[in-house]
Amino acid sequence: MKTFSRTRPIIGAFAVGAARSAMEYAIDYANKRRAFGTRLSNFEAIQFKIAEMYQKVETSRLLVWKGA
């Protein structure tokens, strides 16, 4: 069990990093992609999805930081 206690923050940090990378890729894609003559990032539904993604990544980051 001591091994798990030491590796949990590392695994959590890796997961947060992967999630943040995916979020940055999604933001970049939304800024580049065009639909109906405008950027995808201008649509309110996409903005809400990106904002929710950002909120979850930041919450996870803070939980990992507090757990470490």
Explain what you see.
The chain is mostly helical and 68 residues long. The chain is 81% helix and 6% strand. It has helices spanning 2-32, 44-67, and strands at residues 34-35, 38-39. A hairpin with a 2-residue loop joins β1 and β2. The mean pLDDT is 91.
Strand share of the residues? 5-15%
Number of helices: 2
- The residue fraction in helices comes out at over 70%
Report the span from N to C terminus: 16 Å
Instruction: Tell me the major beta sheet.
Output: 2 strands, antiparallel
N-to-C series of helices and strands: HEEH
Low-confidence stretches: none
Strands across the major sheet, in which order?
A: 1-2
The beta-strand count equals 2
| Bulk shape | elongated
| Rg (C-alpha, Å) | 16 Å
The mean pLDDT is 91
Backbone structural class? mainly alpha
Any chance you could write out the topology, listing elements then pairs?
Elements: H1 2-32, E1 34-35, E2 38-39, H2 44-67
Antiparallel strand pairs: 1-2
Helix pairs in contact: 1-2
